[in-house]
Amino acid sequence: GLQTLGMTLRNSYKELGLLMLVVIMGMLIFSGLAYVGEKDEDGTMFDSMPTALYWAIITMTSVGYGDIYPVTWFGKLVGSVCAICGVLCISLPIPIIVNNFNKFYEKSKIEEEILLKKTQSSWEEAKR
User: Fold this and answer.
1) Please, are residues 85 and 59 in contact by the beta-carbon 8 Å criterion?
2) In this structure, are residues 31 and 56 in contact, taking their beta carbons and an 8 Å threshold?
3) Span 7-52, pLDDT tens digits
C-alpha cells in the first residue's frame, strides 16, 4: 500500500512538477494583478507585492483565511478568477496520479500473487 503510493509519487514527478509550475505562475500573475488593482485604494490591505503574493497563495490553495481581501470591483474579479483557477489547477492532475496509482497497485498485486504461487509450488515439491 504505502510502497505503491511512494512508487506512484516517484513516477508522477513530471505531472507534479507541471502542477507546481502552473500554480506558481498563477500565483505570480494573480498577485501582480491584485496589487496593481488595489494599491491606490483607501482601506486596502494590499500595501506591498509580498502581501499580494501571500493573498494569492492563500486564495489559490483554497485556504482563504480572510485576513486580506480585495475591496475594488477589479480586485474582487481577480480574486474570483484566482480561486477558480486554483481549484482547477490543483484538481486537473489528480486523475493522472490516480491512474498511475491503480496501475502500480495492480502490478504489485500480480507480483504478490506470482510470489505466492511460487511459494506454494516449491512447498508442494518439498513434500514429495
Assistant:
1) no
2) yes
3) 888 888 888 898 899 999 999 999 999 999 999 898 899 999 999 9
> By C-alpha distance, which of 31, 32, 20 is closest to 92?
20
- Given a contact cutoff of 8 angstroms between Cβ atoms, the answer to whether 37 and 72 are in contact is yes
Which of 32, 21, 41, 28 minimizes the C-alpha distance to 90?
21
CA distances from 64 to 56, 61, 103, 112, 127 (A): 9, 8, 35, 45, 66
Distance CA 19, CA 61 (A): 12
Distance CA 83, CA 119 (A): 54
Task: Give the Cα separation of 6 and 11 in Å (integer).
Answer: 9
Residue for grid cell 486596502: 44
